[in-house]
Amino acid sequence: MPTSGKMTDAPWAIEAQGLSKAYGPLRVLRELSFTLPAGEGLALLGPNGAGKTTLLKILATLIRPTGGWARVAGYELGREAEAIRKRVGLLAHGSYLYEDLTALENLQFFIALHGLDVGADGLRRALAEVDLGAEAGQRVREFSLGMKRRLAFARLSLQRPRVLLLDEPFAGLDQQGIKRLEDYLRAFKETGGAILMVTHNLGHGLALADRVAILTGGRLAVERRRDGLDLETLRRLYAAHTEEA
C-alpha cells in the first residue's frame, strides 16, 4: 500500500488531547490524551462499557467529541472530517454488508459509493487475498460470520487506508482466518500504516501491538510501550486496573 496524503508530513498517525464524550450527565470518555506514530499498532483493552467503541467512532468522525481535540492522519477532527474519512478504515462490530448482494457485488457497490478507481481484476484480487475468490458470486446471506468478516476486510483494503480502526477484528475467524489477518496487519504496519485495535483477546492484542493501553471508566489507566511486556504480565496489569470497573 503506498503512503499518500498528509500523514507523511505529520509526526503522529493519531494525536488526541483531552478527548471527552458525554451524553447528558453520563461521561463516556474523560480527557483522553495519547499519540500513535505511523507504522505502529496500539491495542486498546478494557471491560465492556469502558468507552472503547465510542473512541473509535469519534476518530472515524461518526460522532463528535464534547471536549478536547484530535488529529487523524494529520487532519483535524471536525474541521477536516472528509479528509479523515478518505484515509481511515473502520471495522466495527457489524459487517455492514448487503446480505442480498453477492460478495463481488458488495465490493462493486462500495467502490461506486466511495468513488474508488478499482477495476474488475482488483476486486477479484481483493477477494482472493481473503480466500473468498471461489465465493465471488455467492450471496452474503449464505456466508458464515467468519466469511463476512473476511469480506469486510476485503472491502476495507480497497479503500487503501493509512489508519485502521478495528473493533474486535478476530471475532468469528477460524485459525486460518486469524493467521491471514495477522499477516495482513503486520504488512500494513510495515508500509507505514497505523492500527488502533480494540480487543478482549489479550494474546492477539499483544502480538500485534507496539503499544498497549487499558481504558476503564472512560479514562486511560495504562498507556505504555509493549517492550518487555509478556502475556502474563499484561494479564496481571489488566486485572489490577479493571477488577473494580
Quick gist of this model?
This protein has 245 residues and is of the alpha/beta class.
Count, helices: 8
Shape: globular
Helices and strands, in order, run as: EEEHEEHEHHHEHEHEEH
What Rg, in angstroms, do the CA atoms define? Answer: 18 Å
Spatially, the strands of the biggest sheet line up as 6-7-8-3-9-10
Binned, the helix content reads 25-40%
Report the average pLDDT across residues.
89
Query: What structural class should be given to the helix and strand makeup?
Result: alpha/beta
Q: What is the CA-CA span between the terminal residues?
A: 40 Å
Can you count the beta strands? 10
Low-pLDDT runs: 1-8
What is the percentage of strand-forming residues?
A: 15-25%
Sheet with the most strands, sense and barrel status: 6 strands, mixed
How do the strands and helices of this protein lay out in sequence?
Layout (H helix, E strand, L loop, with lengths): L13 E10 L2 E11 L4 E5 L6 H8 L7 E6 L2 E2 L4 H7 E4 L11 H12 L5 H10 L15 H14 L4 E5 L7 H16 L3 E5 L3 H7 L2 E6 L2 E7 L5 H12 L3
Parallel strand pairs: 3-8, 3-9, 6-7, 7-8
Antiparallel strand pairs: 1-2, 1-4, 4-5, 9-10
Summarize this structure as a short list of keywords or feature phrases.
245 residues; alpha/beta; 6-stranded mixed β-sheet; 4-stranded antiparallel β-sheet; 8 helices; disordered N terminus
Describe the structure.
The chain is an alpha/beta fold and 245 residues long. Helices cover 35% and strands 25% of the residues. It contains eight helices and ten strands. It has helices at residues 52-59, 81-87, 103-114, 120-129, 145-158, 175-190, 202-208, 231-242; strands spanning 14-23, 26-36, 41-45, 67-72, 75-76, 88-91, 163-167, 194-198, 211-216, 219-225. A six-stranded mixed sheet has the order 6-7-8-3-9-10, with helices on both faces. A hairpin with a 2-residue loop joins strand 4 and strand 5. Residues 1-8 have low confidence and may be disordered.
